[in-house]
Description:
By secondary structure, this protein is an alpha/beta fold. The protein has helices at residues 5-24, 45-48, 55-67, 82-90, 102-113, 136-145, 161-173, 187-193, 196-203, 215-223, and strands at residues 72-76, 98-101, 118-123, 129-134, 149-154, 179-183, 206-210. The strands form two sheets. It has a five-stranded parallel β-sheet. A two-stranded antiparallel ribbon has the order 3-4. The longest helix has 20 residues, at 5-24. The N and C termini lie far apart (64 Å).
Amino acid sequence: MVETDEDVVAIGAQMEKLRGQIARLPVRDPAEAWVPHHEHRPPGYEDAVKTEIPAPQRKKIKAACKAGAWPLLLSGDYGTGKTCAAAVVFGQFTQRPIWARADDFLSAIAQGRGGKAVPIECVNEFGETVTKSVPYDQFMGRVRSRSAVFLDDIATRQPTDPMYQSLFDLLEIRKGQPLVMTTNKTLSELAAMYDDRVADRLAAGTVVRFEGKSRRQKRRKCTV
Ligand SMILES: Nc1ncnc2c1ncn2[C@@H]1O[C@H](COP(=O)(O)OP(=O)(O)OP(=O)(O)O)[C@@H](O)[C@H]1O
Ligand SMILES: [Mg+2]
């Protein structure tokens, strides 16, 4: 109960102390960002994992995963099921795979390489998503060591030089390790947008083409 001025001062001091303690609460490993807690899973993950990858593509993807023929590039027109297929593969990795939108991810790496820390989202002890800055080396260490890295929609726009370098670095540090990308571009379009060195590294893994009409369109027609 507050009875005297001293009590008010004491409460103020106690609150100050508590604030300090809260500020010092450990934020969960900042490199938790891009991991599959609910906000860092593929969009619509729950539905996506239920989709059945069309047989020809499924066969190739399975063979690539089994042989470790990384990187795996899922390429094709919009709406043909690339992101859903990637989400299905993502679901196979239980050891904290990374899922990110490609452009955001490559920009973040590029920003870090420029001398700034990498801005990432992470979850604190209260379950709140907060943005933290992580030293570049620490971030890349995590990118290297995670079970798998999934980049959705690479090459949606012409890459800047730093983004080109980020993709190149990523291909190098994930060499032989699970790395899955989706794109609307063909391999030769990627060669034109990035360069032959990047395209060559992609071609050394597995490229799976998704063909046909958009399944989005089909869904809409079905429900009307
Ligand atoms: N195998 C499948 N069976 C049924 N529906 C599917 C299948 N794959 C995807 N879809 C549906 O088609 C729609 C588009 O799928 P998805 O987002 O995977 O396409 P995408 O190739 O990644 O498209 P974009 O290039 O525009 O990103 C989604 O609504 C999804 O639920
Ligand atoms: Mg997609």
